[in-house]
Amino acid sequence: MYRHYSSALASLVEEISHGKSITLDLGSNDTGSTQVFLDLRCHFYVKDLNELLQEISSDNPSRFDLLEAHLLDKPNDLKFDYVLCWDLLNYIDKDLQPHLFNLLAPYFKEDTLLHTMRYTNENMPSSPDQFRIHSELNFSMG
């Protein structure tokens, strides 16, 4: 498995490590990133949208309601400092993305940071990848 270095991810982890930040990870529960952020002693919430992707595909007329039901069990006063999308936005229909962010917006602070990765070539995997953060802030996919 090839390891990559991401200066954006390194900056994000550095910022998170400086305080008691609250982070929302929209990626899979199965990744190796969760423990890294818990070790930084930040408050960390995972809402696995990977498990919902097939149900919220464009051919499902209930996809907006399904997404809303999946996201809406947070305290009203909760405000996230960081939101980790990883590569999920590559797989969520363009018409559903504004709905996702409208649902999350009440939980954003004025300066909430969003971390996302976009594929720029034709070799995009057929489903979201599994990201694992390793020592020295290298990460692997797969």
Summarize the structure.
24% of the residues lie in helices and 24% in strands. It is an alpha/beta fold. The strands form 2 sheets. The protein has a 4-stranded parallel β-sheet with strand order 3-2-4-5, with helices on one face. Strands 1-7-6 form a 3-stranded antiparallel β-sheet.
List keywords for this structure.
142 residues; four-stranded parallel sheet; three-stranded antiparallel sheet
Polypeptide structure, described:
With 142 residues, this protein is of the alpha/beta class. It has a single domain, classed as 3-Layer(aba) Sandwich (Rossmann fold), CATH 3.40.50. It is 24% helix and 24% strand. The chain is built from four helices and seven strands. The strands form two sheets. A four-stranded parallel beta sheet has the order 3-2-4-5, covered by helices on one side. The chain has a three-stranded antiparallel beta sheet with strand order 1-7-6. Helix 2 links the parallel strand 2 and strand 3. Helix 3 runs parallel beside helix 4 (97-104). The longest helix has 10 residues, at 7-16. The protein starts with a strand and ends with a strand.
Question: Quick one: biggest sheet?
Answer: 4 strands, parallel
**Contiguous uncertain segments of 5+ residues:** none
Oligomer: single chain
Rg on CA atoms, Å: 15 Å
Helix content: 10-25%
| Helix/strand order, N-terminal first | EHEHEHEHEEE
pLDDT averaged residue by residue: 83
What would CATH call the class?
A: Alpha Beta
Strand content: 15-25%
What gross morphology would you assign? globular
In terms of structural class, how would the helical and strand content be classed?
Answer: alpha/beta
Distance between the termini: 7 Å
Number of helical regions: 4
Taking strands numbered 1, 2, ... along the chain, how are they ordered across the largest sheet? 3-2-4-5
Give a count of the beta strands, DSSP E runs of length 2 or more: 7
**Which fold does the CATH topology refer to?**
Rossmann fold
